[in-house]
Amino acid sequence: METANETIKQAPLLEARNLTKVYEDGVKALDNLNIKVMPGEIYAMLGGNGAGKTTTINIFLDFIQPTNGNAFINGIDSNSDPLEAKKNVAFVSENVQLYPNFTAMQNIDFFVRLGGKSNYKRSDYENALNRVGLQSEAFDKKLRDFSKGMRQKCGIAIAILKNAPAILLDEPTSGLDPKAGKEFTKLIGELRDEGKAILMSTHDIFRAKEISDHVGILNNGELVAQRTNAELKGVNLEQLYVEYMAGYMEETDQNLVLTNDLN
Amino acid sequence: MIKLLIEKELKNILLSPKFAATFLVCSILILTSVYIGVQEYHTAVAQYEANQQIATQDIAQATNWGSVRNQVHRKPNPMQVFVSGLHFDVGRVSRISGFQDVKLTRSPYSDETLFALFRFIDLTFIVQVVLSLFAILFTYDAINGERENGTLKLAFANSVSRASYLISKFAGVWIGLIIPLLILILIALLITTLMGVPISGGDWVSISSFIGLSVLYVTFFIGIGLLVSTITRKSSLSFLLLLVIWIGGVLILPRMSVMASGQLVEVESIAQIEAKQEAYQKARWDEYSSTISETWRKRSQEMEGMDDAERQAYRDEKEWDWLEEDDAARKQVQQDITENNRRLIEETSNQKKLQERVAFSLARISPASSFRLAAMNIAGTDIDMKSRYEDSMREYRDKFTDFTQKKQSESGSRGGFSINVDSESGVKIDFGRDDQTLDTSEMPQYSAPVLSTSNALSKSILDFGLLGIFIILTFGGAFISFLRYDMR
C-alpha cells in the first residue's frame, strides 16, 4: 500500500498527452499539447483569447472530444471513462452561474452532493463559505441578488467542498475586484499546500507568476513556452509573454484601435 | 444521483415565481370553470325537469290521442361539467310526431346567444390550451437555459451521466406540473360532488380516464419542450419555435383539418337533398301518369270493335284486375320514392361520416385534437351525441305513434267528433272518448340513450395510443439529441 500511494503521489493528477483538437470548420484549437500537473502544484496557462486554454479544460471535463491525444485525471482517461475521471476533479468556471431561485446554501448543497459528498452538515458549508470570504448574511439569500464576485466565491466553495485531488480553474479571477483577487490567490495557495493539483487558465500574468509552480504560454493551440517558478525568478514574465505572443498581440492592438475608432 | 437531480428540479420549479403565477392562474381557472360548470349543469337539470313536466301536462290536457303534442328532451350529463363538448351547441328538445322527423332544436347557445359570444371554458379547454402552454413555459429552457446559465457545465463537471440528467429533468418537471394539476382537479371534483352533481360509478371511470388523458397530454408538451430545448442552443429560439408549434398544433391544425375535409369531401346540404327528392318524386309521378294514360288507352283499344254490351261485360270482367294493376303501379311509385329518399339520406350520411373521418384523421396529426376528441368520447359529449339522441328519439317516435294509433282505433275515433242534437239533453259534442283526461299510464316513456363506459373508452383508445406514441417520439428524440448535446 505504502509503495502504491507513493507511486500515485509521484504520478501527475492532471495530464494532457499529445492533446490535439481540430474543429469541424478546420480551426486548430490545440496542437499536440503536453502538460503535467503533479500533486501540490499549480500550473497556470497563459494566453490570449482563442489560444486553447478553455479548450484544454473542456477536454479534461469531457465537454469536447480531442481529435488526438488524451487527457488524464488521476490516471483515468477523461474521454473514455468520464464519469470515473470526473470524480477526481473540481471545476470553477470563468463566470460561475448558479440557480438564481436558490439560496447560496441550497446551491452549494446541490452541487456538493452532485459531486458525491453527502455527509456534510450545514456547519461544514458555513466553514467553506467563511473560508472563501462570503459574508454570512448572504448564506441564505437567493443567488439572483448576488454580484459576480459573490457567485465566484460560491463556486470556489463548491470546489473546496468537493475535496477532489485535482482542480480546474477557468479564468477564476476575471471580474473580481483586487481585494477578492488577492484573497483568491491566497486560497488556491492553501489548496496547493493541501496537496491538490491545480490547473488554471488566466490572463493575469502577475498573479500567475506569484503563485504558480509552472507557467505555460499558449498561442494558437500550441504550448510555446513553459517555465518553472524557479526559472521565472528574476525574469520579466510580461516581457516573455509579449515576446512569445508578439504576432498575436499586434493583431489584438490593431483590433483595439479599430474598435476604439468605431466607438 | 437521480433522486438528487429530481429533487433539485422540483425545488427549482416550486421556488420559481413562474410556478407561483401559473399555479395561481390554474387554480382560479379550474375552480371557477368547475363551479360555473356545476351551476350550468343544475340549471340544465332544472330546465329539463320543468320541460318534462310541461310536456306531461300538455299530454294530460289533450283531449284526444291524435291531438297529443309530445316532445322529448336531451338529458343533462354530469360529465358536461368537465367536458362540455357539443353540449351547448346541440339542441335540447325534439317534437315527437308521426308527421315530422325527429329534430333536436333549441341548443343552449341558440337560446342564450350572449354566452355563445365568449364561450364557457371547461376543464378540457383549460388542459388543452392553458396547461399545454404552461408545460412549454416550464420546459422551453430546460436544457439550453441551463447551458446559457452555466449550470449545465457546472453540473457535468461532476460524475453525472447524461441519461440520468435528462430523465431527472423530465421526471422533475413532470412531478412539478402534474401533481399540482392533480391536486386542483381533485379539489374540483370535491366541489362537484359537494355541489350535488350526481356522479355515477361509470362517470367515475370516465373521470379517471379523462384525468389520465390530461396527464398524457401535458406529458407530451413536457416532452416536446425538452426536445426543442435540446436541439437548440438558445432559449429565446426554443421559446419561439415552441410557440409556433403550440399555435399550429393547438389552435390552427384542428380547425384547418375540419376546413380541409370540408373541401375534400363534399356533403350535400339538406336543401339540396330535398330538391333532389322532390325532383325525383315529380319525375316519378309524371312518368306514372303518362304510363297510366297509356295503359288506359291500350285498354280502350282492346275494346275497339265491341258493341256496348260486350264492352260492358269485358269491363266488368277486367275492371277489378285493372284497378289492382293500377294500384300496384301506384304503390310501386310510392315505394320507389321512399327508397330514393332513403338512399339519398343514406348517401349523405355516408358522405358526412367520410368527411368526419377525413377531418379527424387530419386533425390527429396534432395531439391537441386527439386529446379533445378522446375527452369528448369519454364524456359522451362527442360528435355522435346528436345522432345517438336522434336515433333513440326516432325509435321512441315509432313506439309512440304505434301507441297513439292503437289507442285511437281502440276508442274508435281518429280525432273527429260527432255532434248529437237531442231534444232533451240539448246539443252534445262527442269526441269519441271518455271526457276525463287521457290515461297516460300506458304511454311509452322516452329514456335517454345510454352510452356504456366501455364503449366510450374503446372509442378513445386510438387517441390514447396516439398520445403515447407522440410522447415516446418526443422524449426519445430529446434523449438522442441530449446524448450529443454540446455542453459549452
Question: In a nutshell, what does this entry contain?
Answer:
With 263 residues, chain A is α/β, with parallel strands linked by helices.
Number of strands of chain B: 4
Number of contiguous helices of chain B: 15
User: In which range does the helix fraction of chain B lie?
Assistant: over 70%
Q: Using CB atoms under 8 Å apart, which protein chain pair has the greatest interface?
A: A-B, 32 and 24 residues
CATH class of chain A: Alpha Beta
Instruction: Compute the CA-based radius of gyration of chain B.
Output: 33 Å
Integer average pLDDT of chain A: 84
Helix content of chain A: 40-55%
What is the first-to-last residue Cα distance of chain B?
A: 22 Å
Question: What order do the SSEs of chain B take from the amino end to the carboxyl end, as H and E?
Answer: HHEEHHHHHHHHHHHHEEH
Count of beta strands of chain A: 10
* Second rung of CATH, namely the architecture of chain A: 3-Layer(aba) Sandwich
- The secondary structure category of chain A is alpha/beta
Outline the low-pLDDT stretches of chain B.
Answer: none
Which oligomeric state applies? heterodimer
Q: What global shape of chain B is seen?
A: elongated
Task: State which percent range the strand residues of chain B make up.
Answer: under 5%
Plain-language structure description:
The complex is a heterodimer of chains A (263) and B (488). Chain A has 263 residues and is α/β, with parallel strands linked by helices. Chain A has a single domain (2-262), classed as Rossmann fold, CATH 3.40.50. Chain A has helices at residues 2-10, 53-60, 82-85, 104-114, 122-132, 148-162, 178-193, 205-211, 229-232, 237-244, 246-262, and strands at residues 14-22, 28-37, 41-46, 68-73, 76-77, 89-92, 166-170, 197-202, 214-219, 222-228. In chain A, the strands form two sheets. In chain A, strands 6-7-8-3-9-10 form a six-stranded mixed β-sheet, with helices on both faces. In chain A, strand 4 and strand 5 (76-77) form a beta hairpin. In chain A, helix 4 packs parallel to helix 6 and helix 5 (122-132) packs across helix 6. The longest helix of chain A is centred in the C-terminal third of the chain and has 17 residues, at 246-262. Mean pLDDT of chain A is 84; it is low at 1-9 and 249-263. Chain B has 488 residues and is mainly α. Chain B has two domains: 2-266 and 365-405 and 446-483, no CATH class; 270-360. In chain B, 72% of the residues lie in helices and 4% in strands. A two-stranded antiparallel ribbon of chain B has the order 1-2. In chain B, strands 3-4 form a two-stranded antiparallel sheet. The longest helix of chain B has 56 residues, at 308-363. Chain B is elongated, with a radius of gyration of 33 Å. The interface between A and B is medium-sized, with 32 and 24 residues.
